[in-house]
């Protein structure tokens, strides 16, 4: 099969299969030939590893992953792309395509069934942007046996995810991701690298999964409720933001902040991970 990032090849495939792009499914296919080989190499694909891909499209990244990895499993929601992938990836014997919704499938079961003969498993994907956060959080929260998650996301999302905790650029997603993983910005990708070009620029990030969380937050559910409440009103003082959505009463918030030695007029976005963890424990004390 000639290069799957070649615009002529893509148009030919689309025409023969009667395929047209679905905006609703976040379908922007990569046409910059340098992106997928870099993603596959930096995303943990090697001769002993298994790779789980979400949203293969016509298989441009899938093919690069399959060249480096022992095995690739790709989950695609759009049923129109399943016969296309059968054709474009026909030369590879180490790829399995699963038709389904990555947010609904049992990913732990898929990893268990398909990668038992691999030394490690990584996730590598050019994500559909309409579900960036839910997919990343589902991958991290379910504590899958994976070493890293390498994904293309909107540049803005990449900046937020990779921002230092305690900086104005950080948010609830930054804190949540840093609890489970160490995020790194890998490289930027311009809108013109896609067909059709999206309205935004993109970036590839890698989140290296921590063997275990670095910070003791006590009950994780309370920690994440605290983060959601705090960042939903991030410009307010922390004493006020912690009461939002009925998370804490004014008295509970004041008591926890005092015990944690945090000024009630500070803002949650200014706290580093250590102090956020301490505050979470004091809320539970
Ligand atoms: N990997 C291809 C590439 O780089 O050219 C396509 C990436 S495109 C941004 C996102 C892909 O995810 C599309 O093929 C779309 O159909 C698929 N998709 C959208 N929602 C999905 C879901 N919930 N589960 C699995 N795949 C999904």
Supply the CATH superfamily name of the largest domain.
Vaccinia Virus protein VP39
CATH top-level class of the largest domain: Alpha Beta
CATH topology value of the largest domain: Rossmann fold
Total of domains? 2
- What is the overall pLDDT average? 96
Q: List the secondary-structure elements in sequence, H or E.
A: HEHEHEHEHEHEHHEEEHHHH
The CATH architecture of the largest domain can be given as 3-Layer(aba) Sandwich
Fraction of residues in H or I helices:
25-40%
Number of discrete helical segments:
12
Unreliable stretches, pLDDT < 50, 5 or more residues? Answer: none
How much beta, percentage-wise? Answer: 15-25%
Strand order of the largest sheet: 4-3-2-5-6-9-7
Give your account of this protein's structure.
- By secondary structure, this protein is an alpha/beta fold.
- The protein folds into two domains: 7-209, Vaccinia Virus protein VP39 (Rossmann fold, 3-Layer(aba) Sandwich); 220-284, rRNA adenine dimethylase, C-terminal domain (Helicase, Ruva Protein, domain 3).
- Helix content is 39%, strand content 18%.
- It has helices at residues 7-17, 35-42, 60-68, 81-88, 107-114, 132-141, 155-162, 172-180, 220-232, 238-241, 250-260, 273-284, and strands spanning 29-30, 49-54, 71-76, 95-99, 120-126, 148-154, 181-189, 194-195, 202-209.
- It has a seven-stranded mixed β-sheet, sandwiched between helices. It has a two-stranded antiparallel sheet with strand order 1-8.
- Helix 6 links the parallel strand 5 (120-126) and strand 6.
- Helix 6 (132-141) runs parallel beside helix 8.
- The chain is elongated.
- 40% of the residues are buried.
